Amino acid sequence: MADSSNTSPISGRVHLSQEGQIAIITLDNPPVNSSNDAVRRGILAALNRIDTQQSRAVVLMGKGPNLMAGADLRELEHEPTEPTLPQVTAALSAFPLPVIAVISGHTLGGGLELALACDSRIATPTALLGLPEVTVGVIPGAGGTQRLPRVVGLPLALDMIVSGKPMTALDAHKIGLVDELLRSSEGDGSDTESFEQVLAYANRYQGGKQPLAERDVPPADEQALNAQVDKLLARARGLPAAPVAAKIVMKAPTLSFSAAIAEERAQFLALRGSESAQALRYLFFAEREKPFEPTQPVKAAPVSRISVVGAGTMGSGIALCALKAGYSVDLLELNDQALEAGVARITQALDEGVKRQRLTQAQRDDALSRLNPTQQLPEVAGTDLVIEAIVEELAIKRSLFADLAQWVSEGTLLASNTSYLDIEQIAEGIPHPERVLGLHFFSPADRMPLMEIVRCNATSEQTLSTAARVAHQLKKRAIVVANSWGFVGNRLYAAYRRQCEFMLEEGASPEHIDAALEAYGFAMGPFKVADMSGLDIAWKMRQQTADTRHLRRYVGIPDLLCEAGRFGRKTGRGYYRYDEATQPTSDPEVAQLVERYREEHAITPNAFSTQEIQQRAELALINEALLLLEEGVCQRPADIDIALVNGYGFPRWRGGPLFIARQMSDRQLESALDTLADVSGKGHQRTHRQAF
């Protein structure tokens, strides 16, 4: 904000100044101007100190990039204290002078509720607005569910509040949520150029008081609204706060404003202490921690050029991800047809981004200009990072790494995208092993948020720091894991899938298991996932370990499916039958195959309840998660929960297996793990770790 001789601090987090006839309230709570006690007290104190006879309007703005990025989520762990945010929004709405909100940066949650309580809203062109409360387990609690429908209508308000997705200032201006956009500048609303625009707007503002609380909700078709709510809740994947949010928004036309915000507040308070809200807050903070903290001060090496070896689905996806992040990318593929297909996939994805308005044509063209498709290994000589994404064959990967080591500099990082192979073996004998690591992406690589950074014995802390910075640039949720079979994610999923196969053998059907786990909150049941991935892939892996099969309980049903040519969606038959639209339907042949298998193995089928299926799967994940910690594969418990939520469709609102385990008493957990060991049979490894 421009300097002013009559600026005075209020409670240290809010400043009041006067520019002619305009009173300026500036929020100053770095780093993101989150709402807390001091900020709320400061706003009320500033309002009380404004001379309404000497001022014609009030400007509410933020120092730094944001007006207010939302509430301080840590406050939700405790009982609310006064002044509450509803008291502040009520004071802004009732203030005798018009209040103009300057929306800048991330103006989310309580920040947007503040702006909605003002009489006019102006915004920087790059601002982002939203009410994302459902994503942290609550609903807007300071009038947002009632004020937003009054300014943008019920359909748009439902979209914003039930989905929690933010919108740009440009879109907000189109729908009337923002009254005027500041002219584009490099500033954030508080720089000199933007501040002059803010003052000019405030001085010419003639709208007077326009409290949204006094507006009627624009009429909307009730049947269409109900259909919209159904779609939004289906997309919300079971977030417990989403149906509550929809219900409260839908009351805007029928209840008085005061009655509706009272109900909104009651629901907010009821949700804030729920287990789902605690789980979502836990993940919110866990995902914002740095994935790697070196023990010694090291600087991440600069990376501007990435070479991806392999132009298949995974390789082209990684290349696309790197291009979108601004890197120069070599796409190396020896097969000319495969290279052409990889480039076509990348181009098609970028074109789709333009079509869906996620990219501009200029951004698309810039990304393609940084892509260098090549069949010549020497062309990667000057690269900073190589990521191999070729076939999962140890000998082929070993040969590639040996060739790469001859061409790239000793400082070039060499990374494998392998899912299961031992990276130590892949890079055995490579000079400077401190630059070798794993970067395990998940398919589709340009969309799945999870990345496992795999630390080998010799991997240096600088290499890991560099990888963590690259992961951040790629917008990935990264975790650092040890080099071991399946790393963290695939090993967890293998334990989960194995337990589901045990239940299939014991009497549950694929349909019942999938339905139970989808009701639990998984994006897709395990047998549908297997069909989608292709049953032949896991079959091939089982065949490679056939000589150790006798050491553990083994379910042969998946093998019988593969022997019958049922490889999943790609063959139209797997655990399910698939039509041309790849929709799964039950197949009596599978039920007969499973029944014959049980008869041959003298297994009397048990009846499973939905709850029993869910508990067994959940316990299998908890046990394996604790084994990972016990063995040192993962150092931070939260990384395991991050992996499952971001890579495997585990419901966010449940927090993850270790979050769940923490809610259990020691006795409950021990008893449950004993029961799991009993039903799992030969070869089951029970964790003995108790502290985590």
TrEMBL record:
Residues annotated as domain 3-hydroxyacyl-CoA dehydrogenase C-terminal: 486-578
Location in or out of the cell: Peroxisome
UniProt keyword list: Fatty acid metabolism, Isomerase, Lipid degradation, Lipid metabolism, Lyase, Multifunctional enzyme, NAD, Oxidoreductase, Peroxisome
Sample GO molecular function, one term: isomerase activity
Alphabetical list of SUPFAM superfamilies matching this protein: 6-phosphogluconate dehydrogenase C-terminal domain-like, ClpP/crotonase, NAD(P)-binding Rossmann-fold domains
Chain ranges of the 3-hydroxyacyl-CoA dehydrogenase NAD binding domain: 306-483
One GO-annotated biological process of the protein: fatty acid beta-oxidation
Name the UniProt record assigns to this protein: 3-hydroxyacyl-CoA dehydrogenase
